[in-house]
Amino acid sequence: MKGKSKFLLILILGSLSAIGPFSIDMYLPGFPAIAEDLKTTVAHVSLSLSSFFIGISVGQLIYGPILDRFGRKRPLYFGLSLYLLASACCVFVNSVDALITLRLLQALGGCAGMVASRATVRDVFPVKDNAKVFSTLMLVIGISPVIAPTLGGYISANFGWQYVFVVLTLLSALILTAVHFVFPTTKPPDLTKSLKPGAIVKGYFNVLNEPQFYTYAATGSLASSGLYAYISGSPYVFMELYKVTEKQYGWIFALIALGLIISSQVNSVLLRTYTSEQIIRIALLCQSLSGVILAAGTFFGLLDLFSTIFFIFIFLCCQGFTFPNSSALSLAPFSRNAGTASALLGAIQMGVGTLTSALVSILNNKTALPMTGIMAICSLSSFTVLIIGRKIIKFKASISEVEEQTAEMISTS
Question: If you classify domain 196-402 with CATH, what class do you get?
Fold first, then answer.
């Protein structure tokens, strides 16, 4: 693939991957205005965020087998069109229940792009380059938490919250156009793939039965759930406990997100010398240490605002190394059913992340400990899964090698 074509493809894949995060972050500043206009409470409006998370989690499992059977473009046309229509309808809602329903449909449409982007990386690029490509995608995805809340706040304040969905509609139309004219046919339809429920479930079990998949899918999902814990808990920690203003919080959020972006690009450079397995092991060790320091410092009252920001920054910088390498390693064993594997990976990541976000809210005790404690638990759990999973992978590989040698001996005897 030529340089210009490669750049355009990665830009489209990054845009498809960022649909979900952008749709979440951009409308958050408009919650009070939405509640006022629709004559309800902010708590009720927040259910539209919950319905979006449900749609993303369930929708990815639906699209996986469909992408493997019909190729990448046709499901993308459907998903992006559904997202576009739901976004346009959100502009005209007059009840919060309608908004909740439309956000569910919006997620069911948008998640097609999230699944297709990961599967396409596996289709187009050599396995050894997948981690580098995922690092590049992080550059596009990582911009979302930097600019989306600020942009959404500006639009809501100056034009009204409805125009947030106008912008999302226009963005989805632009992406849909790019998919039609630029996105290559990376995988032809495979009509041998059955869409019967039994065959779909069997396909997912076959993916789950691969040690490399469940090791790195669990490793990456647990590590990224620490990010979800931070996103869920940081508004309370910074604005309520440390008394920073909304504007200051926005700058803190952007600074920490910038660390995530930079580290993902450093990962691409390190991959020239080190393997994904080596990088992810060191990254998770550093993330676990920073998580433990955060939790212990919070528990003993040793951290102030700046030290809290510093250790969260280190924690999420490690995520910039963990995400691309865990994604590449978990999808590496699959080619024919990359869509199914990609969907399952995304569903696991979103499911664990949603559960973690909920736990931070449920365990709120007027301190930063629920956020920092869960961040520490997530990183330690991820590192533990990696160590145990690597042993299982090596053990399975040794059994396979013995079986192959035995079969060769039998065939030549």
Answer: mainly alpha
